[in-house]
Amino acid sequence: MPEKDILKLFKESLKNKNSYLPNLLTASRLVGAFVIPALFLSGNIPGAVVATAAFGATDFFDGLAARKLNGYSEFGRILDPIVDKVFATVPALAILPTMPILTANVGLEALIAYINAKSYTGKGNPKSSFLGKFKTFCLFPTIGLAYLAATLKTPEATLLATAASLLTLGVQGAVAKDYYQKAKQEQQENITTPEIETPKEEEQEKVLEKKQTAEYTNTKQKDSGEIASLEQPFDIDSIDIEALATTMPELIDAPITERKQPNGKVFMKKSINK
Q1: Does residue 59 contact residue 136 with C-beta atoms inside 8 Å?
Q2: Dist. CA 36–CA 30, nearest whole Å
Q3: Exposure string for 59-92, b = 16+ CB within 10 A, e = fewer
Q4: For position 54, which CATH number holds?
Q5: pLDDT digits (tens, 9 = 90+) for 85-94
Q6: Total domains present in the chain
Q7: Which of helix, strand or coil describes residue 256?
Q8: 189/185 Cα distance (integer angstroms)
């Protein structure tokens, strides 16, 4: 989706004050994506685990707030999956040396993001499904368990984090397949039934200007044709010489009569008797 369209959707969301809280909760995960690795790398691993749980919970509360406050917005709908991808990927990158298995989770999450991005640029309309929401529900605890395993450093914690990663990996694969099939179906529908775009204001003005120019040109051509017909040379061959020669003597010899009009004026008239 073009940047100007995202900016337009953001401005439209500002008109609905009920969307402020849901969008802020969603955006908070974007902050958490960088706070969690910072805590982990600084040695505050328990703080990283708590932060993962706290910021991950906002994925539930932003939807709840949107439903309660009627704060849905198109900008929020697009922002939510983008933030989820960042929140799942950045903290996982920090824990990869300890939990290499998360590399597969990060890779599949990147693949899902790519499918959605291709759908957007192809004028598709990808939407979160129940399976996609379940994937997010599994992914955030998986990252939290990975941080917990790094804290405890016990075989049990590591085994639990690995099992969660494998379970999430299966769900991610199903989501990637589902989103790909939907994107492909939308692409085929767009090809068979192309969208008829309504001309924008600038295009409408250009069409109107062309129409006015065409009408003006037709009017000028019409006026030029009438003037040309008036300026055509007099064709002397079209005069009936014999009829004119017969009528002229009669007209010359015709008697002149006087007639009075009702207003008292007198006018002269030649009368030709036939």
Answers
A1: yes
A2: 11
A3: beebbebbeeeebebebbbbbbbebbbbbbbbbb
A4: 1.20.120
A5: 899 889 988 8
A6: 1
A7: strand
A8: 6
* pLDDT tens sequence across 62-120: 989 988 998 888 888 888 888 988 998 899 888 898 889 999 999 999 999 888 888 77
| pLDDT-flagged residues of the chain (< 70) | 1-4, 122-127, 191-207, 212, 216-274
Establish if 206 belongs to a structural domain: no
183 lies in some domain: yes
Cα-to-chain-centroid distance, residue 1: 8
Question: What's the rounded Cα separation, in Å, for the pair 157 and 150?
Answer: 8
Say how far apart CA 113 and CA 257 lie, in whole Å.
Answer: 107
Residue 224 falls inside a structural domain:
no
| 10 part of a folded domain | yes
> Is 100 within 8 Å of 44 (Cβ atoms)?
no
Q: 93 is written with which tokens? A: 């990158």
Sign of CA dihedral 132, 138, 140, 142: negative
Total-model pTM = 0.60
- The predicted structure's pLDDT at residue 252: 56
CB 157 within 8 A of CB 148: yes
- Neighbouring CB atoms inside 10 A of 50's CB total 15
Crossing angle of the two packed helices 102-121 and 155-192, in degrees rounded to 10: 20
